[in-house]
Design a protein that fits this description.
The chain is an all-alpha fold. The protein contains 3 helices and no strands.
Length: 70
């Protein structure tokens, strides 16, 4: 569990921002969301494959956009 301590002359907003950043970096929320429902191994593999395909398509689109047409 991530924790932060109040630094000298630090506002509550800055403390909260640092805490949120540490929570995001630790991956606690993503783990909780993933474990909310049971997902079988085959379903997990299917989801990961789908994400990989989307990622590769996105990379291809970015690569084509940088080339320029004309």
């Amino acid at each position: 569990m991530p924790s932060v301590t109040l630094r000298p002359n630090e506002s509550q907003e800055q403390l909260l921002k640092r805490f949120r950043k540490s929570v995001a970096k630790s991956g606690v929320l993503s783990t909780v969301r993933r474990k909310r429902w049971h997902v079988s191994k085959s379903e997990l593999r299917r989801i990961q494959k789908k994400k990989a395909i989307r990622r590769s398509r996105r990379r291809q689109r970015k690569a084509l956009g940088k080339v320029g047409h004309g």
